[in-house]
Structures are given as C-alpha cells and as structure tokens.
Amino acid sequence: MPELPEVETVRRGLESHLAGRILERVDVIRGDLRYPIPDLGAALRGQRVLSIERRAKYLLFFFNGVLLSWHLGMTGHFHVLSRDVPAAAHEHVRFLFDDGKTLRYRDPRRFGYAGLLPLQGWRQHPWFRDMGPEPLGDEFTPEYLAHCCGKRRISIKQILMDARVVVGIGNIYACESLFRAHIHPVRAANRISDSRLQQLVREIRQVLMEAINAGGSSISDFVCADGKPGYFAHSFRVYGRAGKVCLDCGGEIRRIVQAGRGTFFCPACQR
Ligand SMILES: [Zn+2]
To answer: Which residues belong to the active site?
Structure first.
C-alpha cells in the first residue's frame, strides 16, 4: 500500500510531466472503483493542469476550474506514457493531454477512488475537513504535538496514528520514528518530556524525507512503459524485523499488537 512518501514521489513525478498541459479527453474503461468515479470527461475536458499537490495520501490535481482528488487505495498506480502505448491490464482510466502524453490509472484491486471538488472550499469536504496538519508542514511542531498529547493517557503510537492529530505517518513510519527517538511505543502520550517530543518530531520529518528522497530515484520506473510500479523498497530498522537483531544495540526486535496494528520496537533502545 502506498504510504505518504510514495504518494509524494508520485506527485513530484506527475507534476513534472503534466503541469501546464491541457486535457483533451478522458477515457474511462472501468469506472467502478471503490466508489463510482464521476463524469471526468464532462468536468475536465479543455482544462489546464495548474499544479498537482498532495494532502495526506490524496493526490490533488488543480485544474483551472475544478479540483480532481485521487486516492490510490491499495494498489493504484499512475503512469505517464505516450499515446501509442497499448493499454495494460487493469488500466481503468486514461487521460489524453495536448502534448501527446497520456496519464494512465491502473489498479488491480480497485480500492482507489476519485472525486471532483470545488477549487474553493475543498478543505471542507468530508475527506479532508477533520484532517490534522501535514507531518512535513510548518504546523506540525513539538509544541503542537505536546498540546495534542496533553493529558491523554493513550499510547504515543496511537497519537501518531491519529489522522486528526497528524496525517500520513502510518504504521511503518510511526514505528521507525519512535525507534529513532528511543521512545517506547506503548508509553502514555502525557508522560513524554518536551525535549523527547522535540526529538520525535525531528525524527518523523527525517524518516519521511529520507523515504521521499529514496523514492526520487525510482520516478523513472513509473513514467516508463515497463509496467513496474514506481514504489520503492525501503530499508527499515524495526518495521517487519521481529526476532531480528537490533542494529543499534544487538538486542532482539519485538512485535506487539496495538489497536489492531503490529508494532515493531526494541525493548532495550526504547523507553
Ligand atoms: Zn536496540
């Protein structure tokens, strides 16, 4: 499943190819994604792509008259290909642009979905209105996180996974950033000092930026016709490493379940 760094990598790749282009046609081969996709052709034909942005794990295509919001679900991919490349399996939507390029959406499991939103007021849409700040944005500060932790006795990991507090960290990066900050994932949110929260915010930004930078090298995959997804293999320090050796202390990485999700951590390094 694409996480925030993959979606950001996709966004950068798409923007470099599509910004400024005029959409000539949309072919919907199969519109029954997670939700039925709206009439994209009628809404978007003749419109120019102004920019492509991201909010949490949604891609936001800003056209001059409307916003197209797209979630990749579990297995969604975008590819930019020339017009003559034949359709691949599971290619459900094709956008044709004025420079001869096409944007293809493939999604074997069809959990992705799309919506047309007004340029003004899209933040009030139910998909977005309750979202907390972006983890890489200016609003996500140690002071803000301390405020969210406040008197709450739930675990710090659950706080990081709460999209009303901060969006897009996800299970993998919550585990990795807590390891780097040496914070035990079950520690109560209200029992973490300000200086440790400061380090945690720093590590969250760092681990996400590293993943985004690693993804930059795979952009060529997702714009080529080789059929490979543009997502990249990460190297994680704790995530998925239960029973393996801690790279910092030589102890053993453990796995527990918190709120239904697997948490990976080092009991020696994280307190
Ligand atoms: Zn350790």
So the answer is: 2-3, 57, 261
The more confident residue out of 1 and 14 is 14
* Phi, psi for residue 76 in degrees, rounded to 5: -75, 145
Tell me: the pLDDT tens digits for 38-50?
999 999 999 999 9
| Centre of ligand 1 from the C-alpha of residue 243, in Å | 12
Reduced to 3 states, what is the DSSP secondary structure of residue 110? Answer: coil
Q: Check if the beta carbon of residue 175 is closer than 8 Å to that of residue 239.
A: yes
| Model pTM score | 0.91
CA distance 270 to 182: 4
Per-residue H/E/C for 124-144: HCCCCCCCCCCCCCCCCCHHH
Question: Quick one: tokens of 257?
Answer: 């379940």
Whether 235 has a pLDDT exceeding 60, the answer reads: yes
Kindly give the distance from the C-alpha atom of residue 269 to the centroid of ligand 1, in angstroms, as a whole number: 4
CA distance 102 to 109: 22
Closest CA to 4 of 103, 194, 131: 131
